[in-house]
Predict the structure of Adenylate cyclase.
Amino acid sequence: MLFRDRRLAVWVSPLVTLLLTLIILGADVGDMASRLRGSLFDSFMRLSPRLYEDTAVKGHPVRVLDVDPAAAGQFGAWPWPHAALAGVVDSLKRHGASVVVLVGRVDRPDPLSPRNLLAMVPPGPNYDPARQALSQLPSPDTALVTALSGVKSVTGLALGGSVTPVKVKAEIGWAGGRSAVLSLKDQLGAEGSLPEIETASAGLGGLKLIADPDGQVRRMPLVFRANGKAVPSLEAEVLRLIEDKPQLMLKADDGDSGLFGGAPGVMALETAGATLPTAADGSIWLRYSGANAARMLSASALLADRLPPDAVKDAIVYIGDPTETVTTPGGPRKVAEVHAEALENLLLGTVSRRPAAAAQGELAVLLLLGLGLIFVIGRLGVTAGAGVLVVLTAATGYGAYRIYASEHVLFDALGMNLALWLVWISAAAARGFEMWRTKRALKRAFTDVLPKRVINIIARQPEPMKMEGETRTVTYLSCGVRGFSELASSFRGDPAAFTKLIQRVLDPLMAQALEHEGAIAKLTPDGFAAFWNAPLDDPEHAVHACEAAMGMMEAIAQTNEIIIHERRIDGVALDPVEIGVGISSGPAIAGGFDVHGRKVYSVNGDCAVMASRIQALSSSYGPAVIVSEETRKLAERGFAFLEVDYIALEYQEDPVKLYAMLGNPVMRASPKFRALATFHDHIFQSLRDQQWHKARELIAQCRKLSGASQKLYDLHLSRIAYFKEHPPGPDWDGAFRQILQ
């Protein structure tokens, strides 16, 4: 069959696309899933940002040392001399700070320390006084060590680089599977500060911020893996110190092999106050509140003792390079501020959470929704699929946002929805390609047979075109050139001109049939046949056929005018070309078949035979368009029909009435037509009653009316003469049979 497998691509193409998107998102090919997820979560954060809240409500305000212009003018650009740092730490201790965090390393002695200056003094006894004076000066490195020793302090470990031994202050305890350490962010080693600085510090924490593939810092690892050893982050060490614990406890899981099982790795960081959920790699999703003046601590005010009382009491103060920044969803931020926001998230419990099985769950939902979408597209079409997809996109997107806004739980609806749209696009493309192929095949097979509208409809939905055959009620039209043989004989010396003439006559006539939703059934030597209500339903098939016939009358009149004018210019006389049209409605078998590889669609039935016979008889009646009684019943409201005959065809038992179509409803309503129709009713009643004399008188009167066909009346007068000599008998049904002999 022509369209048997045409819908296969509408199923296969989106299924393949769905499978590919599942693989791409599941394996995060090209970091695509990570990038999409990050952009969606950024949007959620902008729509529902974390409002700044001072962590003083949790007992420990979080502050960031602000190197303001006054302090920078006093101590210069960062990094500051160790003596200045020691002064800052001492001032924080005096004001009651709980923990001081150095966001960086102190990995070399102060350039201005006496030890470094002594190395710069030239040798010789002349410089002994200078060397003695320098050796008696206090060391800024020692001052910084002393300051850090006097307060709970955390200094940083630079992770990565070369493989080095790793030193940490915190003991890492594991509740659950110890193999989860393998899921932590892996680093080669950890490089710290000067040995005396590390000794003075109460905690050592990893400094590294892990950016997503797009360069944005959205997550903060709480624990790393360096050279096979678990290393806490700065924030994890701060939490340990404010709880005065020697150990950090990590809750872990070896994972579950099930579809929705948690990924192996870290599950949470347990503190005395709460259990802080983490991702499998030990990281947390940050909720930024943005820069806030309340978080900043003026360095100049601190060193000048101009701070309000209790300004930093029990505070956790981050000290870092003010010029070191990273990219966040909200724009560039100082590294120290990012660490401070991470600690605020932990203390306030505002960390965003992403369940361990979220990725697997999203893929499962994508699979189910994708299969459902493909089913809808396959059954209801691409447009219905688009409507369903719009609803799904809105529902999943809004649902994911509401879950984030209310519960701070992260689900990725963007990747899933983009995948679903790709599935829809692939189905639409496959559907469009199949429509193009179908339309091309239809045009090749039926371009001169079916109207363009019908071809387009069948291309979109070919099921209505049942090529295997069906019974339908159709209206069949047969059109032919009257006096075709005589016309052909007159062109015997110029066959090319005759062929051109017939082409010019038939083209506009067939165009009228196609224009009025008809299908061309066949071409004959003197004309063509057309039909309506197949292959597509046409409730007004009889009306459309009659409209086409009226259009043909106008078309042949215009064609005659042009042709006669052209022939007159050439000095050749030509009578107007006349056509006859027969129309009949009734049941027929409609279907298609192959003829040497070409598809042919046609209808066959009594109505087709009758239309051809009526067309052949039309020249005997005068009017060009003659219709059967069934056609008149179906189209009577739109046209003026006049009874012209009651005949019996040899292949039918019951006689049929024939009607001439004389015009539109305006003519039917005119007094002249009503008078003519009344006379015809009386004429045919007189004939059926075998009242020959009365019928002659009525015909004589009718000849005088406007619109009367003299040829028709001549026909009936000849029949009256025949029946007077050969009476039909008392059982006569009124039908004329001898006309066909």
